[in-house]
Amino acid sequence: MNDSKIGKFMPQFTNNDTSLLIAAKTLLHPNGLDLTEVEKLLQILSHKDLDDADLYFQYLQTESWGLEDGVVKDNLFSIRQGVGIRAIKGAETGFAYSDAISNEDLKKTIKVARSVLVSGESFSFAVPSDKNKTTIPQLYPSLNPLNTLDTPAKVKLLKDVYAEILRVDSRVLHAAVSLTAQYAIVLVAAMNQPLRADIRPSLRFNVSVILQDKDKRESGSSSCGGRVGYDFLLKDDKAFWYAHEAVRVAEVNLRAKPAPAGNMPIILGPGWPGILLHEAVGHGLEGDFNRKGSSVFAGRIGERVASSVCTVVDQGNIPGGLRGSLNMDDEGTPTQKTVLIENGILRGYMQDKMNARLMKTSSTGNGRRESYASLPLPRMTATYLLSGESTPEEIIASVDHGIYAANFSGGQVDITSGHFVFSTNEAYLIEKGKITSPLKNVALIGNGPDVLTKISMVGNDLAFDPGVGTCGKEGQGVPVNVGQPTLKVDVLTVGGTST
Description:
alpha+beta; PmbA/TldD fold; seven-stranded mixed β-sheet; six-stranded antiparallel β-sheet; 12 helices; 23 strands; about 25% helix; disordered N terminus
């Protein structure tokens, strides 16, 4: 190996300096390594006939707190670290991972990853060290959210929120409040790109309640999160607002009547209802499904797949601490805004590096993995429908008899066909252009690509979910955001409880 050809990073830090230094201090130095040693390990991994190779280091602190009916019942804390090592040739991947990060352990793991895929001599290449290529955006602070409140303050927050729930409504039968925070440090060393690191804070706050009125019981929940610290919940009494919201939803459900069934217009509210777009359409626009031909959108670039009022994008570089935002993806590619559907025309797919190469295009910064023990896959970040020109009031007024779906509780989707079933946890009847009675047991049944063609009005009130989305794919879960303005679907099947 010719060490003179290995790029030297230490003198050439740019905006990635702080993240690289933190990653080196946390992941490498305690194990007798430095950034130059990581470059040498990448050289050992690489082969002349490989298309790509990388080492993905991760350090993760996680804590969770749970309170039920005034008692703190859960407090968990964990630290995990390791490295995933990958060698790629064509569509084949050799992968191995290790919980140990010493030089000796990494060389053993590299040997396993190489042996799975190919044999042959390694070769030397220069790791790019151009300043402009090293720079990545900094969309959120490099803070450790676990340290933004001390333990007594965290317990007090839980108990104060519980007390507020009881104060708001005397019918509270049960209430639970939970906090989860993560602090992740990742370092990516990959062929033909600079060393890159990212510091990723993450927070999630959940409130759930059950109200009882005589012999009737109903539940409500509310959540928020993002790449923020615990202090986010203390500003403007935000934690109390979500406590009130959970009680409000439960109270609405106490008053709800059985939903009608049949085909009718559906109005989807702004924000979290974008989960229908995410599940029914978003997964079908991921590169691997389209490369393999298993998506209903495969081979349809340039074709009309939605009504002309629909423009759908996936954007991983939205600033402000959104849960789905990332400075870079898990392959070290800076995130970006990717137009998927423009005025109804299919323009592109979300890509990781391998699927992009095989489809003769470029990565869109959507290569994501749950942890160092997982392979990266093309995944969504923040997927949303752009605002239109109608007001929410105009959209609702256009419906004589239909349903307004304000929030969803869950659903199922077949990626190959696009067929879906979604359940609401807050919905209302629309009568003669006005929102009237709350409804329960509303199930929306349809086909994702078909729904896109039936969207006739799009509102001017784009909103994102409050930061609670986790997307599952091939057993991996990653944080995401969804978003949309108020929109009208001309006809959708409602599986209700009455006719």
